[in-house]
Amino acid sequence: MRGFLSIGLVVAVGVGITIGMNNAINGSIGKALSAPVASVIINGVAGLSAVVIALVLHSRGMIDWSAVKPMTPLILLAALTGFMILGGITFALPRVGAVAATVAFILGQTVVAVIVDTMGIGSYDPVPLDVRRILGLVLLAVATYLVLPHQPVAQ
């Protein structure tokens, strides 16, 4: 069990590094093109890439469409929120900088994660809300404030 935890932690850190790199790239594109245009173009390229990959997987019999169909509402919600996330990244990074935006993203994600854990949303077992978790949120909020730039970020 401990080995799975260690591997999971390493993968999670790797994902975090990848998200940080992706945020920087998206922020640069958003600064050059404007957030809405960047979001549409990036999501369009990602969507086209996903269609090609889905067609390859389908041709190899690796997609069970009967399992996909009932998930359609959640898939559409995931796509919509993904579009909103990308728009937010391309808007926020050029305005507050990579560090402040990333810490704020983590604060927002952690608030939602605490709610999901506490309520047991999404077929997860509930995890009680305790003082440590509340303190963690407070510390993240303080960290977000501390890393905000003291002067406007040049655009």
Q: What does this 3D model show about the protein?
A:
- Helix 4 packs antiparallel against helix 5.
- The model has no long low-confidence stretch (mean pLDDT 90).
- Helices cover 81% and strands 0% of the residues.
- The protein is mostly helical and 155 residues long.
- It has 6 helices and no strands.
- It starts with a helix and ends in an 8-residue tail after the last helix.
Topology diagram in text:
Elements: H1 2-33, H2 35-59, H3 65-68, H4 72-96, H5 98-119, H6 131-147
Helix pairs in contact: 1-2, 1-4, 2-4, 4-5, 5-6
What is the straight-line distance between the termini?
48 Å
Strand count, sense and barrel status of the largest sheet are:
none
Name the structural class.
mainly alpha
Provide mean pLDDT, rounded: 90
From the structure provided, what is the oligomeric state, counting identical versus distinct chains?
single chain
Helix coverage percent of residues? over 70%
Contiguous low-pLDDT stretches (5 residues minimum) are: none
Q: Provide the succession of SSEs.
A: HHHHHH
General form: globular
What's the number of extended β-strand segments? 0
Rg, rounded, reads 19 Å
Number of helices: 6
Q: β content, as a range?
A: under 5%
